[in-house]
Design a protein that fits this description.
The chain has about 325 residues and is of the alpha/beta class. About 40% of the residues lie in helices and about 15% in strands. It contains 10 helices and 10 strands. The protein has helices spanning about 20-30, 50-60, 75-90, 110-120, 135-145, 160-180, 195-205, 225-240, 265-280, 290-300, and strands at about 20, 30-35, 65-75, 90-100, 125, 150-155, 185-190, 215-220, 255, 310-315. The strands form 2 sheets. It has a 6-stranded mixed β-sheet with strand order 1-2-10-7-8-9, with helices on both faces. It is globular and about 60 Å long. The termini are far apart.
Length: about 325
């Protein structure tokens, strides 16, 4: 399905495992829950952005880049992994990081901010919460180009048409694992943020005639905004792959677990992170996977699934940022 003419770097040689969460499922008393361990993908700390970066970094190298610029929140997992990929490829990397109204920049912060320093980010540009993040990042990009750099800009989350191919490929991987392991899922749940992961899975599952539904749990925006965002990313990837006549309704979202906003904790998120850690020894993060798992737990408690159902949770990583949210888990 994915043209071999579209180049990619390979940062993870094997498929990430799908594991049964036996004790977690038993505690909830509902369906059998499985987890796709994309937190085990390659590059520093793993996570879903690694799949996108395989395509994006290949394009950067093809275009002769010597510097990568990208942007995100102060504890951005995407920025961590983009920086790690740049280090691996011998490129400079500058990050544009945005404060939240309730979370200001702290030079001594742990989590991903500590990792940015350890990996040797060339420069961190901190911008206020009420500025246009992408515009600021593009301004940094243009300034570096005026200085003679060959800069490759990667958007928030790596969620453009090219980056989305990483999760079209992931969908194919999941379907192959289902066939090999005899797994028949009722539904797959994934975080829906910048849109590339959600869109790629939706496109790949559609093309692969997946026998299950896909639900995105929003981490930052209401459905009125999020569904359109993901659909636009999906259409871009479809055009890149020369796929036409896609049906409507490929994107489904649930916006009941965002809380007060992106990066802001909720009691249900804290419960979800603790419960998985204490039953399976697997760490989630506070921004994405914790809120997605909170949604899954609620769905089980509300009786959405039958006892005999099998549900797949996509673990998109992010646990390396947990120390920055430490007080919320004590």
């Amino acid at each position: 399905m994915i043209s071999e003419q579209i180049e990619r770097r390979i940062y993870t040689k094997e498929a990430t495992p799908i594991e049964q969460l036996a004790r977690f499922s038993e505690v909830l008393g509902g369906p059998t829950i499985y987890i796709k361990r994309d937190d085990l993908l390659g590059l520093t700390g793993g996570g879903n952005k690694t799949r996108k970066l395989e395509y994006l970094m290949a394009d950067a190298l093809k275009n002769g880049a010597d510097t990568i610029v990208t942007c995100g929140a102060l504890q951005s997992n995407h920025c961590r992994l983009t920086l790690a990929a740049a280090v691996k490829e011998g490129l400079h990397c500058q990050l544009v990081l945005q404060e939240h109204a309730h979370r200001k920049f702290d030079e001594q912060a742990l989590g991903n901010q500590q990792i940015f320093k350890l990996l040797g980010a060339e420069q961190l540009h901190i911008v206020a919460h009420d500025t246009d993040l992408v515009a600021q990042a593009l301004a940094v990009t243009e300034q570096l180009r005026r200085e003679g750099r060959k800069v490759y800009f990667i958007p928030v989350g790596g969620s453009n048409a090219l980056g989305t191919l990483g999760y079209v490929r992931a969908a194919k991987e999941i379907l192959a694992q289902c066939k090999a392991e005899g797994l028949v899922f009722k539904e797959v749940l994934v975080g829906s943020g910048s849109g590339g992961t959600h869109a790629g899975l939706a496109l790949g599952f559609y093309e692969g005639n997946a026998p299950f539904s896909l639900m995105g749990i929003n981490v930052s925006a209401p459905n009125a905004v999020q569904v359109l965002k993901v659909e636009q990313v999906l259409q871009g990837a479809a055009q890149l792959l020369k796929l036409t006549d896609l049906p409507d309704g490929l994107i489904s979202c649930e916006d009941g677990y965002v809380g007060e906003g992106y990066t802001l904790s909720t009691p249900k998120m804290v419960e979800a992170v603790k419960l998985l850690a204490q039953t399976e020894g697997i760490l989630l993060d506070a921004v994405y996977t914790g809120k997605v798992m909170a949604g899954l737990i609620d769905f089980v408690r509300q009786g959405k699934y039958k006892k005999e159902d099998k549900i797949l949770f996509i673990h998109t990583g992010g646990a390396m940022s947990l120390s920055a949210f430490g007080g919320e888990f004590i």
